[in-house]
Amino acid sequence: MVDGRGRIARLLRMWVPLGFFLVLALFPFYWMAVTSLKPNAELYNTRMMPLLVYHPTLKHYVDLLTETRFLAWTWNTMLVAIASTAISLVFGGMLAYPLARLRFPGAGLIAMGVAAVYLVPQPLLFIPLADLINRLRLGNTLTAVILTYPTMLVPFCAWLLMGYFKTVPPELEEAARIDGASHLQTMWRIFLPLCAPGFISAGIFAFTLAQNEFLYALIFLTKTSVRTVPIGVIAELIRGDVFYWGQLMAAALLGSIPVALIYSFFVEHYVAGLTSGSVKG
Amino acid sequence: MSVSSELQCCRLKGRWADWITSGLSTMRIRPWLDRESVFSWLMLAPPLLFLAAFVGYPFCYGIVLSLQDRPVAQPGVFVGLKNFATDLKDPVFWRVASNTFIYTGIATLLKALGGLGLALAMNQQFRMKNLVRAVLLLPFIVPTVLSTVAWMWILDPAFSVFNWFLIRLGVPKPGPSWLGNPILAMTSIIVINTWRGLPFYGITLLAGLQTISPELYEVATVDGASGFQRFRYVILPLLQPILLIVTLFSVIFTFADFQLVYVLTHGGPQNATHLFATYAFDLAMGAGQLGLGASVALSMLPALALLIVALTRYMQRQ
Known about the structure:
Strand order of the largest sheet of chain A: 1-2
CATH class of the largest domain in chain A: Mainly Alpha
Helix content of chain A: over 70%
Helix content of chain B: over 70%
Oligomer: heterodimer
Largest interface: A-B, 107 and 114 residues
CATH class of chain B: Mainly Alpha
CATH topology of the largest domain in chain A: MetI-like fold
Distance between the termini of chain B: 44 Å
Number of strands of chain A: 2
CATH superfamily of the largest domain in chain A: MetI-like
CATH architecture of chain B: Orthogonal Bundle
Strand content of chain B: under 5%
Largest sheet of chain B: 2 strands, antiparallel
CATH architecture of the largest domain in chain A: Orthogonal Bundle
CATH superfamily of chain B: MetI-like
């Protein structure tokens, strides 16, 4: 009896805080889903219990996909995120390998510079960058964002990969060097294949950051055909004072799904990347 | 036997590294190129040039812009520090500065406390721990704009779900105007920023907690330490380095936050939630005053530079 009550108390102590955090984390998503399934008559009726759907409908989803360019925005977002992630992994790896594995004059300074650049927030750069993109005549092209997203992703990937590279034991590289392999061969054929998990972590992280980017896309992409999901949603489903709430919530949910899916496949890598920056490997 | 054939036992695709290497050997510049410092700089040069072009140059150009009177699509005229003088005389600028500090300070504090709570709650043995952790991280990975739109609807003046319950609990109609009242609007953006940033703190601090050896708890328990004492004298000191790094990170990005405020309140009501970034955006992109906008954005630099230098040096030491 006493045991039973102790167990219940223990379970309560564990699950009350966890439950609180879970409800807090999930409520906005639940609210998106519920709202997106409500017909307008229900959505704007304050007498009905708002947490439930009485007559679920897919109308908002159909409208979103047929009346707006949502699919094009999704395609643009994916394209931009994948391209800028790829650029960032290549450049990030090129920065990280020498900084983490080789000795050369100036290494400390460069490493510090890379970290500092990672921490420079976009709002410090967007006005001059807007002018630069204009002068390069890249306004309203996806190239504009594919080129500018890596400014935050490259230093980030480099920093994350450096942390990972430092955990790989040096014996294999030393053996390859003794056998006469060049630095390039050692890096490409011996070292990098060992670092796939590091690249996955950095890639997932960069991908979610690229999906999340808003400021550059807002400035550089003003035509509906080149917009990304966040910009399209804000600019075209909110017209002046008119909010298309049903479609907005459908878009918010659909827009979150690709990131959430990719994240769920690689959640361990994501967490590893998240914590490697601050917890000593 | 040649090096490249030996290396082929690695069964890897892409022989270009070998071709380049053997090509360079025949040209006799390989020994020079293969020197550690030369190879390093060859690797570093492309990404560094890229960063110089798209970070270094805009940064310097931003400083030039801030010293110009530069309406959009017109050539700039050098005006010295006039833009900064204008800022200092602008009451909105001071409002923006105090908003930014309040927003950053309170949101950081809430995230640190909440994140610590989240990490402690997660640092127990229970079923489906990985699933719970994955779900708790969702607010952090979902694009900010999309979750902010959901919050906007949660806080809608006419159809807020909170107000639906508050009204039924006896609060007079139409209930609090979450985004229309200056203090409530500031509270709202702080809470939503906390909601989004909390998992970052929680998961990072959890990783830190897991590096603390369980023996330390046991020793402390045997010595008669209470739960609070164990937290205060064992956990907190060991967690301090991680807490410091996460906090510095979060302060930098909260201080320069843009999208949450831009979407939710656009700085309103009556500039009550304008931050440096949103105000700079309004001046530069809305009013077309690139120079003045750049000067507002650069006003973040002293505080940011301090934080960036502190964090970079701290990470280097680690």
